[in-house]
Amino acid sequence: MDKNKLKQAVYEANMELVNKGLVIYTFGNVSQIDREHNIVAIKPSGVDYDKLKPNDIVLLDLDGNIIDGNLRPSSDTKTHLVLYREFVQIRAVVHTHSRYATAFAQAGLSVKCLGTTHADYFYGDVPCTGVIKDEMISDDYEKQTGNLIADTFKNRNIDYNVVKACLVACHGPFSWGADAKEAVFISTVLEEVAKANCLTQLLNPSALSIKKTLLDKHYLRKHGSCAYYGQG
Amino acid sequence: MDKNKLKQAVYEANMELVNKGLVIYTFGNVSQIDREHNIVAIKPSGVDYDKLKPNDIVLLDLDGNIIDGNLRPSSDTKTHLVLYREFVQIRAVVHTHSRYATAFAQAGLSVKCLGTTHADYFYGDVPCTGVIKDEMISDDYEKQTGNLIADTFKNRNIDYNVVKACLVACHGPFSWGADAKEAVFISTVLEEVAKANCLTQLLNPSALSIKKTLLDKHYLRKHGSCAYYGQG
Amino acid sequence: MDKNKLKQAVYEANMELVNKGLVIYTFGNVSQIDREHNIVAIKPSGVDYDKLKPNDIVLLDLDGNIIDGNLRPSSDTKTHLVLYREFVQIRAVVHTHSRYATAFAQAGLSVKCLGTTHADYFYGDVPCTGVIKDEMISDDYEKQTGNLIADTFKNRNIDYNVVKACLVACHGPFSWGADAKEAVFISTVLEEVAKANCLTQLLNPSALSIKKTLLDKHYLRKHGSCAYYGQG
Amino acid sequence: MDKNKLKQAVYEANMELVNKGLVIYTFGNVSQIDREHNIVAIKPSGVDYDKLKPNDIVLLDLDGNIIDGNLRPSSDTKTHLVLYREFVQIRAVVHTHSRYATAFAQAGLSVKCLGTTHADYFYGDVPCTGVIKDEMISDDYEKQTGNLIADTFKNRNIDYNVVKACLVACHGPFSWGADAKEAVFISTVLEEVAKANCLTQLLNPSALSIKKTLLDKHYLRKHGSCAYYGQG
Fold it and tell me: Is residue C231 in a domain?
């Protein structure tokens, strides 16, 4: 296992959040896990993106113990760790406060699938959790935030492999993927889709989700065994 | 016929979508046809704009057979091909998911002609199609999307030479023109006009389309035999 | 009189519209007048900002006759000329289709003075004209557009020296000033003020214009004999 | 005391307002105080950010007398001075007309705490003052603007150390901090939070402030003796 390669990948994905306009200052974090060795690389807490260096990335085990690095890991680390335990096929997690996705989270609303741009990347609505309960705030808040996401997917029967993002109510978006790059990609697409969704609702408050046949067509032409999009 | 020149033109027009802020990642495609030889050059499927090279552009005949190129053509290729067959005077097609035009498409609303900026470039509303029918989704979806556009223009008696764009409901905008450059120009203007239209409706939900005399004045001072705009 | 200096000033002001994000392609024009010699320098018609050169600027007399230049002047030239005749103290005119100001024009709404940012630069609302009459469209449209602006200021008793901009209904903003630089500055501030005004109305549809005492305070601390803003 | 260092810090903070997109032209000002010597460094009045140089920064005593500098200080100087006297622990003040914060000020609305992004930086709503009274406008307006802010915090029992910004009704935002850099940071975060808040209200007009337990959790994990965010 190449620790520097893992740190570099996580560093680059963090910086890509800046390039895509999803974060300012310290408003986000990206992690990636090496599933073979169960090592998680994550952004350090409160380090400004302008000053972040590859070697600042912290390496942890799945219990949150520091394996490598001189800095404290992101304050949201426990949320990431829960997601790695609960969503066993993902290998990266991203958290941002991107504007439109955050607005939906603050509004307590899921991002409904109003068009094919959404359907191309998310196989259904991107859910918004309920508001976190007081006892979850007082008892290991960041861990409970992870549980809130995992429970939302379990209770609503949503497959985390086809809807790779969740809005935490009153908070903001989390996304995930096969690697840090994909998880950042999903964050970016979510913001784009949230913006178009918001504008759509302003233009037509009664706009409906697209029908299942169209959702299937778009999602499945890009994903799964019958996909014919891309270079295969 | 110079294949490389055609590829280069289509490559540059694709990249111009990025420059104008109309696409991210792979969210769009441009094609151009050589009407003399019936050869269509189009963006390859799922290739990120950051990595696109002129030689990646795929050449096809009007039935979609690959004439030149190692990559699969855009998954929307059949939509382009229908438009070339139905709209016999156009020589380029552009598809994007630009935010405001997509919002109108998702809202199922035409972009009404609310001002002279619109009237300078579109001789009337930019229509939004009805929602594609289930049997059209299951039977050659991309081809049927082209038919949906063509039928919308036919049924509503709209001349594709004076309104060079269409919104596909629940999906997004398509535009066309005399060459790839013009079709990208129309896409850009459509997004600009859609944004101003959206803001207008937020400020004044009862804002009306401009009157015919003003539409005529603006469109016809720029287009047709009596035009006096530009350097003639 | 230095013709090249005049052309250069008008060229630079035109390009500043691009830098400030107020225009794309050919969506605007700037002119400036030499009041001593009654020579007007204006952008040529339909020339893309990307290709505009200082020497493309056209010189005209006040009747619109070309004095110098190989290109046709802006199609809006007659509007500019009317403004120079009616507003005898101005020396520059700018026209754009900037998004928010255009949205107000399309909505048929004046930009009300909702805050001190507005009051710092406009001594009252920026008016929106009525919709141009059919006979004004058919009879020398561009000249009549100028008359519409001048009449709006006359009929509503607005001093063009303290409100240096007007929205033409269904069309967009015109602004003016002591030179091309100031007129572009006013265009930019108008767009900024229109944006804040639009957002204000979305947040609070019953937001009121600021009171006269506050308007006076802010406008007069920056303008007139009692001004104490700036370096005097 | 190093005057040049103070000027440089205030210069850089002023320019950072431009970098963050919070000001255009002359639409803002930053000051910082040396509490040991009671010397305030502030932007000169009406100097365009494009032309501002470190040595243009004006040094004043707390009564507003110029100690160093050839230019007039910002016309808002007296507002800053009142804040330094009333809020004895702050060492920098920033004023901008940033779009979303200004829209809230023009709407006469506080920026309610609708999410954790807000709670991370402001321990409660960012208040909007009442409209300034006529006698305060006629009697030393800029000083009274400072009093209006200070009184708003006093009357509503808000601690200026945990809510480091205020909207002045019909006007715009002021912020403060331990140094010019922090005050600019707060301005930037306020604009970001105001934008997300505005979008949230458009999506869900009945969106509520987050509950006290969540506000406490987020603010206190970043600030105070129990903070565990950042590198400590």
Answer: no
Question: How far apart (Å, rounded) are the C-alpha atoms in residues C58 and C53?
Answer: 11
A28 inside domain: yes
Is 0.90 topped by the overall pTM?
yes
D46 to chain C: nearest residue by CA? C230
Q: In angstroms, rounded to a whole number, what is the distance separating the alpha carbons of residues B94 and A218?
A: 19
Strand, helix or coil for residue C150? helix
Enumerate helices (H) and strands (E) in chain B, giving the number of each: 8, 7
Q: CA B66, B72, B73 angle in degrees (round to 5)?
A: 75
Residue with tokens 């104490």: C228
Structure confidence at residue D100 as a pLDDT band (50, 70, 90): very high
CB D125 within 8 A of CB C215: no
CB contact under 8 A, C100 and B229: no
Domain membership flag for residue B229: no
Please give the structure tokens belonging to residue D215: 């506000």
Contact D103 C203 (CB under 8 A): yes
Residue type at position C79: T
Is the pLDDT score of D1 beyond 80? no
pLDDT digits (tens, 9 = 90+) for B185-214: 999 999 999 999 999 999 999 999 999 999
Does B232 lie at the interface with C, CB-CB under 8 angstroms? yes
Kindly report the CATH number assigned to the domain that includes residue B109.
Answer: 3.40.225.10
Within 8 A of B203 by CB-CB distance, chain C residues are 103-104, 107, 109, 198, 201
For residues C37 and C1, give the distance between their C-alpha atoms in angstroms, rounded to a whole number: 8
Written as six digits, the tokens of C49 are 């900002």
Task: Read off the tokens for C16.
Answer: 């500043």
User: How many structural domains comprise chain C?
Assistant: 1
Domain residues for the domain of C98 are: 3-223
Considering the domain boundaries, does residue B230 fall inside one? no
CA distance C198 to B81: 42
Q: How far is CA A104 from the centre of its chain?
A: 15
Which residues on neighbouring strands pair with residue C30, listed in sequence order? C94
